[in-house]
């Protein structure tokens, strides 16, 4: 990675210039925000001025003296402002790095030490429709999984489905009601959702039904065969509905719902009790963690067993964190949910640390929070008919709208597409648009869902990037017999594009740390723009540089395709 190489060079230069400097002092190099600041920047002199008792400019001067004027890698360094160092690389080195990438685009991106990583994402709740929050979790989680897989890590994609709990008692009681027409073969998730609404109402009004429901919960927990059979059926119906969405989104995920951890719950509580970490509060077993208080300033309990003996969300998460570390031997845990669960996960990680399940020195745990999905009106997203419209309809609407837009464009351009080809492209575009519009905004912010915006062909959108890819392909198609030769960057716009291409691995590396897919979107958008700059300034077809420029085109297309695929987006060669 370029940035690492330069960072090392500068670390050495700092050490040499200031031998007393602690070996662990981090010398930081960043990508320049603008071409006039060179390619990279080192601003460490500013931070070290107190320590070294020297003005930053003098520090930088001394470092540059040690570094020497020029090298194979560094073309020139300039001190700017109070002491920033602007670093420009030689075009020869950038060319070389690009050429390396044509051989193996993944090479540099590979992690030095691949580890095992569990990503908990999507995770809808059985007998309920997946909502847009789950859609966000699915899209973000999948892209993070793809990124870490690309880097060569062993990624466990876990669907922590809410498939256990007292709600099932009501549903199972209701399914046994002779008045309810239940046909296992035809019943779908909508049927369950409606049935649950009725059951809930009856539960609140009808004492007998309430008792029966509670009895079913007890039977379910004790493993009664018939009750379990009903539960299985409910899970199966839900699973089918979720799978339809995963298929459309091309999501690969392993179901490991809350029920999986049932056999581990009692032991986890016992273990915590043995370690004297449990306090009983109003009959409930809780952990009280330093620094967590409610709005009134009272200690906030991390409740692990309710006063009636029942287990809850936190119990399962405690058991599962333990399982993922002790049994699955994961070195990193990632949980993708709405920001509303931030406190839960902060407490979970703290509690697991205190209990000795999670050693932060060995295992990194991240909650990856995201904001709400808003409608175009800026209010919380509701599908047209309110709560019950299905997520799948939202996706098919995006595909239909994509189809209409493509058809309009084809008419304008008088391009001939056969209907099936058009349908296939529309499916890719519609799904890509939904994914990209979500991923391209900073996930911690709320995000406005708008079909019109996400399907635009201009700006930082899926269509723009897909179209850029198509265009690059088109160039090659126009010169079918050309021999692609080695890359040779000469023109300023070629170098700018080449440098950006070389930064692919370091962008991925930084995202594996901050888990912000929008940075990859920005990178790809900039890649497309830099490509446009190159294509505007440098003729490809029929010039003496044709074959080396074709190589640059090819590499750009590969990086674009690979980057989009990490985001979970597909590319097409015609559009
Ligand atoms: N089922 C939960 C929900 O719908 C998300 C589960 C997230 N994962 C976890 N291990 N708690 O909000």
The best one-word shape is: flat
The overall pLDDT average reads: 94
Total strands: 14
Provide the spatial order of strands within the biggest beta sheet.
7-6-5-11-12
Biggest pleated sheet: 5 strands, parallel
Q: What is the rounded distance between the termini?
A: 34 Å
- The tally of helices reads 20
Distinct ligands, ions and cofactors found in the model: arginine
> What is the CATH-assigned architecture of the domain at 2-89?
2-Layer Sandwich
The CATH homologous superfamily of the domain at 2-89 is called Arginyl tRNA synthetase N-terminal domain
For this structure, the CATH topology of the domain at 2-89 is Gyrase A, domain 2
CATH class of the domain at 2-89: Alpha Beta
Q: What is the CA-based Rg, rounded?
A: 28 Å
Helix content range: 40-55%
Structural class label = alpha/beta
- Low-confidence stretches are none
Strand content: 5-15%
């Amino acid at each position: 990675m370029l940035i690492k190489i330069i960072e090392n060079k500068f670390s050495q230069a700092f050490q040499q210039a200031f031998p007393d400097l602690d070996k662990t002092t981090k010398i930081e190099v960043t990508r320049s925000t603008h071409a006039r600041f060179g390619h990279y920047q080192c601003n460490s002199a500013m931070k070290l001025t107190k320590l070294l008792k020297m003005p930053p400019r003098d520090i930088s001067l001394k470092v540059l003296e040690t570094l020497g004027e020029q090298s194979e890698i560094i073309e020139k360094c300039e001190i700017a402002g109070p002491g920033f160092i602007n670093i420009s690389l030689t075009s020869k080195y950038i060319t070389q790095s690009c050429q390396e990438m044509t051989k193996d685009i993944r090479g540099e991106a590979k992690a030095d030490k691949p580890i095992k990583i569990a990503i908990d994402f999507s995770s809808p709740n059985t007998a309920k429709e997946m909502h847009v929050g789950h859609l966000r979790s699915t899209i973000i989680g999948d892209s993070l999984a793809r990124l870490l897989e690309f880097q060569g890590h062993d990624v466990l994609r876990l669907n922590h489905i809410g498939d256990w709990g007292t709600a099932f008692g009501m549903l199972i009681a209701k399914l046994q009601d002779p008045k309810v027409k239940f046909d296992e073969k035809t019943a779908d998730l909508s049927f369950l959702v409606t049935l649950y609404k009725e059951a809930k109402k009856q539960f609140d009004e009808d004492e007998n039904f309430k008792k029966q429901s509670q009895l079913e919960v007890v039977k379910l927990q004790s493993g009664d065969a018939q009750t379990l059979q009903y539960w299985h059926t409910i899970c199966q119906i839900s699973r089918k509905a979720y799978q339809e969405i995963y298929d459309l989104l091309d999501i690969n995920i392993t179901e490991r719902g809350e029920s999986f951890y049932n056999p581990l719950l009692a032991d986890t509580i016992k273990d915590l009790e043995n370690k004297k970490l449990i306090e009983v509060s109003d009959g409930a077993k809780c952990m009280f963690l330093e620094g967590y208080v409610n709005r009134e300033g009272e200690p906030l309990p991390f409740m692990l067993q309710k006063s009636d003996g029942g287990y809850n969300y936190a119990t399962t998460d405690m058991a599962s964190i333990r399982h993922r570390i002790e049994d699955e031997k994961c070195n990193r845990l990632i949980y993708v949910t709405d920001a509303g669960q931030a406190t839960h996960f902060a407490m979970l990680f703290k509690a697991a640390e205190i209990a000795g399940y999670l050693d932060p020195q060995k295992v990194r745990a991240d909650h990856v929070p995201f904001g709400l999905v808003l409608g175009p009106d800026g209010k919380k997203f509701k599908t047209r008919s309110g709560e019950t419209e299905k997520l799948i309809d939202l996706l098919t609407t995006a595909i239909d709208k994509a189809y209409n837009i493509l058809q309009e464009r084809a008419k304008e351009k008088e391009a001939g597409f056969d209907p099936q080809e058009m349908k296939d492209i529309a499916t890719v575009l519609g799904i890509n648009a939904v994914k990209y519009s979500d991923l391209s905004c900073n996930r911690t912010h709320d995000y406005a869902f708008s079909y019109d915006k996400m399907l635009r062909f201009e700006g930082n959108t899926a269509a723009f990037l897909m179209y850029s890819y198509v265009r690059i392909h088109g160039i090659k198609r126009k010169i079918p017999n050309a021999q692609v030769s080695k890359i040779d960057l000469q023109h300023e716009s070629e170098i700018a594009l080449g440098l950006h291409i070389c930064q692919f691995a370091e962008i991925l590396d930084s995202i594996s740390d901050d888990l912000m897919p929008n940075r990859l979107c920005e990178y790809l958008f900039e890649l497309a723009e830099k490509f446009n700059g190159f294509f505007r300034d440098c003729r490809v077809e029929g010039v003496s540089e044709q074959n080396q420029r074709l190589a640059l085109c090819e590499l750009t297309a590969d990086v674009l395709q690979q980057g989009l695929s990490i985001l979970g987006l597909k590319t097409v060669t015609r559009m």
